[in-house]
C-alpha cells in the first residue's frame, strides 16, 4: 500500500515536471515568433464594456487613450447613465481631446450576457472595420495597436488574440489563481499555438481583435 502511494506520487511529480518542461519549450518557441512589419495603419475601433469601477480601472483605461497609433476611436458602453465606470471614462476623455470617444447607455440587456449585449451595441455603431475588444481589467502597452495592425496586414487573418499576464490581488486565493493562469493555462495554450494559427485563421497577438468581413467603415 505504501509502495503504491509512493509510485503514484512519483508519477504525478514526474508528469508535472514533464509538463513544465514542455510548457517552457512551447513558450520559448512562441516568443521567438516576430510579428510582420506594419504595411498600413488601418483605422481601429476599440470597444470597452463597463460596469462599475474595478481595481486599477483608471490606469487600465488610460493605457488605451495613450496608444501610439495614428487613427483610432474608443467606444464605451454601460447599462446605466450613472454607471461609475462610465463617469470615469468621461473624465479621462476630457484629458485626451485628440482621441475620438463615444459613449453608449444600453439599458438592461435583452439576454443573459450583459457584456456581449454591450459589445453588440458598440459593434453596430463602430466606424471602422478593424475592431479591438477588451475587458475593463485589461491594461496594454502603447504599441498594442501597432502590433495588431501588423498582424492584420495578412489578408487571410480574421481574428487575433493573445496571452495576458494575470496580476494577483491581495488575497491568497487570488495569488493562486494568477499563478495557475500564468503557468498551467498559458503553458497549454502556447503548446497549441502552432496548430491553432493555420487551422482557424487565428493568430496570437497582444489583444482580442477581429475584422468585419465586408462593408465599408461607418461615417
Short summary:
The protein has 219 residues and is α/β, with parallel strands linked by helices.
Report on this model:
A seven-stranded mixed beta sheet has the order 3-2-1-4-7-5-6, sandwiched between helices. It is built from seven helices and seven strands; from the N terminus they run αβαβαβαβαβααββ. Strand 1 (44-49), helix 2 (57-65) and strand 2 form a beta-alpha-beta unit. It has one domain (44-211): Spore Coat Polysaccharide Biosynthesis Protein SpsA, Chain A. The protein is of the alpha/beta class. Helix 1 packs across helix 6 and helix 2 packs across helix 3 (84-95). The model is unreliable at 195-206 (pLDDT under 50).
Question: Within the CATH hierarchy, at the fold level, what is the topology?
Answer: Spore Coat Polysaccharide Biosynthesis Protein SpsA, Chain A
Across the major sheet, the strand order is: 3-2-1-4-7-5-6
Superfamily at the CATH H level?
Answer: Spore Coat Polysaccharide Biosynthesis Protein SpsA, Chain A
Based on secondary structure, the structural category is: alpha/beta
> Helix count, per DSSP?
7
Q: Which runs of at least 5 residues are low in confidence (pLDDT < 50)? A: 195-206
Mean pLDDT: 79
Outline = globular
Distance between the termini: 73 Å
Text of the CATH class = Alpha Beta
- Helix content range of the residues, please? 40-55%
Q: Using DSSP, what is the number of strands? A: 7
Rg calc = 20 Å
| DSSP strand content | 5-15%
Q: Number of domains in the coordinates?
A: 1
| Helix/strand order | HEHEHEHEHEHHEE
Amino acid at each position: 500500500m505504501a509502495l503504491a502511494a509512493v509510485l503514484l506520487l512519483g508519477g504525478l511529480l514526474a508528469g508535472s515536471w514533464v509538463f513544465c518542461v514542455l510548457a517552457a519549450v512551447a513558450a520559448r518557441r512562441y516568443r521567438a515568433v516576430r510579428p510582420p512589419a506594419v504595411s498600413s495603419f488601418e483605422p481601429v475601433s476599440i470597444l470597452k464594456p463597463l460596469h462599475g469601477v474595478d481595481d486599477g480601472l483608471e490606469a487600465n483605461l488610460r493605457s488605451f487613450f495613450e496608444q501610439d497609433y495614428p487613427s483610432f476611436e474608443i467606444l464605451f458602453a454601460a447599462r446605466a447613465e450613472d454607471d461609475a465606470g462610465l463617469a470615469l471614462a468621461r473624465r479621462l476623455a476630457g484629458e485626451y481631446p485628440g482621441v475620438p470617444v463615444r459613449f453608449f447607455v444600453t439599458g438592461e440587456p435583452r439576454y443573459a450576457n450583459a457584456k456581449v449585449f454591450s459589445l453588440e451595441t458598440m459593434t453596430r455603431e463602430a466606424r471602422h472595420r478593424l475592431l479591438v475588444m477588451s475587458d475593463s481589467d485589461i491594461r496594454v502597452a502603447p504599441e498594442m495597436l501597432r502590433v495588431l495592425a501588423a498582424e492584420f496586414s495578412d489578408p487571410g487573418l480574421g481574428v487575433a488574440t493573445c496571452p495576458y499576464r494575470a496580476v494577483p490581488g491581495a488575497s491568497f486565493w487570488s495569488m493562486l489563481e494568477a499563478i495557475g493562469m500564468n503557468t498551467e493555462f498559458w503553458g497549454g495554450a502556447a503548446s497549441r499555438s502552432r496548430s491553432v494559427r493555420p487551422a482557424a485563421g487565428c493568430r496570437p497577438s497582444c489583444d482580442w481583435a477581429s475584422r468585419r468581413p465586408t462593408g465599408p467603415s461607418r461615417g
